[in-house]
Design a protein that fits this description.
glycoprotein, four-stranded antiparallel sheet, electron transport, metal ion binding, alpha+beta, about 35% helix, signal, 7 strands, Phytocyanin_dom, binds copper (II) ion, 5 helices
């Protein structure tokens, strides 16, 4: 019993993790470098970049930097007027919008040697349900009825998770009622 409950909780936490934002270290363990001919195009192609994700550039700040550039500058490895410039050796970028986020190393010769990366953030196409508006969420604080073939442990765990949510929803509902009365 206890094992099944733990397993269910673990599965639920894993499910939540999937929708959470990810952290991507450019070049993985190799980092941001010209040593080893890292193929950053290949690296980026294996990732699924999403809005909210974090990109980390880790490198030796004595030898490299990170510049965010336009498409034209990216193509021609022109580092003369970057949009932004970072040089801490451990630069973190939070993705806030869709599209191409283009970076190169501004040290002469490095971009030409392949130290450039295109972080292409595409819109998620999954059939994830849209977040309900606060009003409709408050107006229907009824948990879904458990299906008849659910095992008992699952219902226990589900109930344990749903009760605080239900209490929260009910209290919001109550405060909504009060504010409606006040108005
Ligand atoms: C690099 O970009 C700057 C600014 O856009 C431009 O003035 C310059 O001519 C470019 N250099 C080369 C080599 O293309
Ligand atoms: C880089 O920064 C991240 C947090 O943003 C930290 O977890 C990591 O340990 C840092 N790495 C180095 C080498 O300082
Ligand atoms: Cu470099």
């Amino acid at each position: 019993m206890a094992f099944i409950e733990k397993a269910v909780v673990f599965l639920m936490m894993t499910a939540f993790q999937v929708s959470n934002s990810a952290v991507h270290k450019v070049g993985d363990s190799a980092g941001w470098t010209i040593i080893g001919n890292i193929d950053y195009k290949k690296w980026a192609a294996t990732k699924n970049f999403q809005v909210g994700d974090t990109i980390i550039f880790e490198y030796n700040a004595k030898f490299h930097n990170v510049m965010r550039v336009t498409h034209g500058m990216y193509k021609s490895c022109n580092a003369s007027s970057p949009l932004t410039r970072m040089s801490t050796g451990n630069d973190t970028i939070k993705i806030t919008n869709y599209g191409h986020h283009l970076f190169l190393c501004g040290v002469p010769g490095h971009c030409q040697a392949g130290q450039k990366v295109d972080i292409n953030v595409v819109k998620k196409v999954s059939a994830e349900a849209p977040t309900p508006s606060p009003i409709s969420a408050m107006a229907s604080p009824v948990p879904p009825a458990p299906s008849p073939n659910n095992g008992a442990p699952f219902i226990v765990v589900k109930g344990a998770l749903i009760m605080p949510l239900l209490a929260l929803a009910l209290s919001s509902y109550a405060s909504l009622g009060i504010s409606l009365l006040v108005n």
